[in-house]
Task: structure prediction
Amino acid sequence: MKLLAISDVHGNGDVLKWLTELGRFADLLIIAGDVAEWGDVKFFRNFYKVISEKGLRTFFVPGNHDPDYELNLPKISNLHGNAVDFDGLTFCGIGGSNPTPFNTPFELDDSQAEEIISRLPNKVDVLVSHTSPYNTRCDRSYGGDHIGSKPVRRFIEKTKPKVVICGHVHEGRSTDSLWDTLIVNPGPAMSGFYVTVFFDGRTKVDLLQA
Result:
């Protein structure tokens, strides 16, 4: 199976041009949040409408800049607090982010994040989290601080998924691992960054740019 994964579009409509083209060659598209900028519902809905019309099977979580908004579109599934099986793998997710200094539209404190995570199964293959797990290469800020989610890290330590796809920390574009779990932050799609993930005996991830 081939996944195409992005995060952090932040209202850049040009992303749709290369994303829908590359998506034709993937089995599943993963979007780890922040499609919109500051809760722009119109952009958020139109972005996913175009992807749905292209027939691209897509799993997403809303980011801290996205509206916490359910979409009733063919081929599009919201993983926030949910689990979906696809081609023999279990995908689940959590959106939003831990609190930021900017009071963005969809932030969760640790207790709220823990409540959402409690809805997720103990058997997970792929976790999609907008916020990178705490204390990894994927959550390191420009200043060197780790600004990721501690509840997400605890969930990974407990369930040991094969792969975690995250975002939020633009400068945290990288891969890392927690035990046998591969963690990948694609970097901001607004700058053309994306990843491919292959499941074929072993898991392979490529950090790429459109």
Q: What stands out?
A: The CA atoms of residues 80 and 94 lie 4 Å apart.
